[in-house]
Amino acid sequence: METATAPLVPQRMPEKMSSDFADFEALCASTTLAHVAYSGDSGPLVFPTAFALLDGHLMIHGSTGSRWMRHLDGAQASVAITKISGLMVARSTFESSVLYRSAVVFGTFTRVGADRHEDLLNRLSERLIPGRTAETRGSARKELAATMLLEMPLDRWSLRVSEGWPEDEDDDIAGDAWAGVIRLGDPVATSEAAPDLRAGIPEPESVRALVRSPRGIV
Question: Closest Cα partner for 34 from 75, 83, 70?
Fold first, then answer.
């Protein structure tokens, strides 16, 4: 489905920004976890939830008895979606960073009408567990009534991508510190030395320890 979208203009580090909607869709296809932030009666709030992109909207669901779902209906909010792929290990802590793709969607959530509710709820379920709806009974009327679907149009979004190698100063490159990346993998993490690392500089124990214990990375 063609969707009119508008990436936001970057204010800082524009080289990390991507205005390609395909990049945004790829990030959203790689994870089902988002964090929703909005201002409630008691102040700013943020919560994690499953999401899907359907028909040009970002969709979330929850109980009709949920206070935050009721507050979100008609409210302005921002939704953060992040996928961490590793760590950039530079020759200084200042230049070290995380390898990631991260998007933020800005807009207003509105409640999905009854005419689209069941179809979109099934499609959201298929996004989370493909093929599962064909293996189970259909939702009962009372179950549908107890579930709220909210959607936000993809009109305003921002995407940052951090990849590549450390960009160290010449003086640091001439030094004796190791540099490279640690990539998260399944089932193990791996390390790669930077292309400009001089021969004879060994991989440090801190990197080896993280690779041996990938659960400690993120």
Answer: 83
pLDDT in tens, 184-208: 887 788 999 999 999 999 999 999 9
Is the CA virtual torsion 144, 148, 149, 153 positive or negative?
Answer: positive
Distance of alpha carbon 15 from the chain centroid: 19
Does the pLDDT of residue 4 top 50, yes or no? no
Short-list 101, 86, 116, CA closest to 185: 86
User: Would you list the DSSP string of 13-37?
Assistant: -GGGB---HHHHHHHHHT--EEEEE
Q: How many residues does the chain have?
A: 218
Work out whether the CA dihedral 81, 86, 90, 96 comes out positive or negative.
Answer: positive
Counting Cβ atoms within 10 Å, is residue 25 exposed (0-12), middle (13-18) or buried (19+)? middle
Q: CB–CB of 102/18 below 8 Å?
A: no
Enumerate the β-bridge partners of residue 82.
102
Model confidence over 35-87: pLDDT tens digits?
999 997 788 999 999 999 999 999 999 999 998 899 999 999 999 999 999 99
Categorise residue 74: left if φ over 0, alpha if ψ from -120 to 50, beta otherwise.
left
Could you tell me if 106 and 156 are in contact, meaning their C-beta atoms sit under 8 angstroms apart? yes
Amino acid letter, residue 39: S
User: What are the tens digits of pLDDT across the range 149-189?
Assistant: 999 999 999 999 999 999 999 999 999 999 999 998 877 88
